[in-house]
Design the sequence.
């Protein structure tokens, strides 16, 4: 894989854009989003299925992506997907940091992390659990709640992160009306957790 992506100098880019972070701890903050193609996890409720097949997304030089990111004032870049950790990301991180840009990643943790990260959001999936050791690196644990049984999965993962890791439960968007009361009641009973909403969808922005 490294040869195809030239050690991370070429990456399958779905889209990159400047917007407002809509989920988790950094909700409401401006950030440059870099969405990479390719994901083999296959969540039934995924709202980014267009990213799954990396073959349909062009390989783009990481330096071009970094140049665009550095033209915006936020000073932070969120690497997402797809599943971004399936690619070597050390080069991209170094180039972003050379420009003074903080590096954030949103990952399921199903692959070992590469790169240097200022913020790691771990969003684990049952069908492809996180690799050993990644929980201890997470700054934020964000579990998508599709049904009530996902709360058990959330607690299983919460037991593996460090005490400094922030805990978020996020209603799955297509089930928001049906599941939000369950999530709210759970957080009221278990206040170590916080509710994360997909604020960008309420705001109708990318």
Sequence:
């Amino acid at each position: 894989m490294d040869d195809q992506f030239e050690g991370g100098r070429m990456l399958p880019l779905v889209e990159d854009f400047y917007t407002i972070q809509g989920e988790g701890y950094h909700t409401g903050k401006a950030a440059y989003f870099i969405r990479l193609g390719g994901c083999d996890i296959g969540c039934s409720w995924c709202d980014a299925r267009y990213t799954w097949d990396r073959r349909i997304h062009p390989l783009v030089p990481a330096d071009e992506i970094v140049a665009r990111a550095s033209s915006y004032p936020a000073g932070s870049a969120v690497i997402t997907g797809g599943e971004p950790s399936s690619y070597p990301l050390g080069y991209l991180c170094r180039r972003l940091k050379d420009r003074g840009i903080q590096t954030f990643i949103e990952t399921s943790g199903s692959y070992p992390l590469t790169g240097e990260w200022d913020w790691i959001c771990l969003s684990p999936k049952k069908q492809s659990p996180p690799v050993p050791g990644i929980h201890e690196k997470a700054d934020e644990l964000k579990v998508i709640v599709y049904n009530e049984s996902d709360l058990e999965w959330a607690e299983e993962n919460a037991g593996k992160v460090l005490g400094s890791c922030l805990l978020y439960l996020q209603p799955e968007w297509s089930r928001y009306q049906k599941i939000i009361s369950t999530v709210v009641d759970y957080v009221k009973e278990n206040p170590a957790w916080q509710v994360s909403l997909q604020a960008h969808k309420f705001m109708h922005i990318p």
In short: The first strand starts at residue 10 and ends at 20. The mean pLDDT is 95. The chain has five helices and nine strands. The CA atoms of residues 86 and 204 lie 29 Å apart.
